[in-house]
From TrEMBL:
Keyword hit for Nucleotide-binding: no
Pfam family, one: SBP_bac_3
Keyword hit for Signal: yes
GO cellular component terms, semicolon-separated: periplasmic space
Signal peptide annotation: 1-24
Domain of life: Bacteria
InterPro entries associated with the record: Solute-binding_3/MltF_N (IPR001638)
Protein name: Ectoine/hydroxyectoine ABC transporter substrate-binding protein EhuB
Coiled coil, from the record: none
Protein species of origin: Rhizobium esperanzae
Length: 280
């Protein structure tokens, strides 16, 4: 065999190996060697939070664990982190899957691969009791020149700007607890976050705050929650999507998630991850 033929064969073998590796994906390789599927999530009730021994609880965690079980995967390893560490941790290989109230947004789609959406998450406002400023939308906040508070990196920042709220009137804090604190202390006239997170916090605060009707917000402000995967695992995502299609909206799913406040209005409808990645 000539040297050129040997090199050509070697190049073909290397290329074939690379293609095979790319197709298999890191997570499939991990599973094939008997390793666990590491689910990364932050403590963000009711979407995802740790129970005893870090058991993955909450809407999205419960959903994902069941879909994986139906796919035949039961070796699950929960990994609790902070919200800001989810996507970097996935990219760094510390997790295989990330969950929680992870909205499918164009900026995030540039870095990770999302499953098809599994829920619609409406946005609401948090105000003082009696809603003294009479606000129920971003348009009200902008028109009255009020200060709002939301979480750092939340999609609501972009939504508010789109509706005319100047950046100088948008206070950013770590999360829902700090959003409530800012409104209670009157550092902001309204807090903005997803309705379920606000409702969860309101249970602990009592009559110090009030949540506006999420239906008063424009429909386009609703987020659609998906499950995050590494870009190398598109083959696994396709299998996950096929399995979740058979589970989403079933009585079994609705019963399992009802305890966390999930209802039929939160089903994602006909929105796809492809559309959301291009339009949100």
């Amino acid at each position: 065999m000539t040297r050129r033929l040997i090199l050509g064969s070697l190049s073909f073998a290397i290329a074939s190996a690379c293609v095979t590796q790319a197709f298999a994906g890191g997570l499939m390789d991990r599973i094939s060697t008997g390793k666990s599927i590491r689910i990364g999530f932050a403590s963000e009730p009711p979407y995802g939070f740790p129970g005893e021994n870090n058991e993955p609880l909450g809407i999205v965690n419960t959903y994902v664990v069941e879909v994986l079980r139906r796919m035949g995967y039961k070796n699950i390893e929960p990994v609790v982190t902070d919200w800001g560490g989810l996507i970097p941790g996935l990219q760094a290989g510390r997790f295989d899957v990330i969950t929680g109230g992870l909205a499918i947004l164009q900026a995030r789609c540039a870095n990770i691969t999302f499953s098809e959406p599994m829920m619609k998450s409406p946005v609401a406002l948090l105000v003082k009791p009696g809603n003294p400023e009479k606000i129920s939308s971003f348009e009200d906040i902008a028109g009255k020149g009020l200060t709002m508070v939301t979480g750092a990196g939340y999609s609501m920042i972009g939504y508010a700007k789109k509706e005319g709220v100047p950046e100088t009137n948008i206070m950013q804090v770590p999360g829902p607890t700090e959003i409530v604190a800012a409104v209670v202390a009157e550092r902001a006239s309204a807090g903005v976050a997803d309705y379920l997170s606000l409702r969860e916090i309101a249970k602990k605060v009592g009559d110090k705050i009030e949540i506006t009707d999420p239906d008063a917000m424009p429909e386009w402000t609703a987020n659609y929650v998906g499950v995050g995967f590494n870009n190398d695992d598109k083959d696994f995502v396709a299998k996950f999507n096929a399995a979740q299609k058979l589970y989403l909206g079933t009585p079994a799913m609705m019963d399992a998630l009802a305890t966390y406040g999930y209802d039929e209005k939160m089903l994602p409808g006909d929105k796809s991850s492809e559309w959301l990645c291009s339009n949100r």
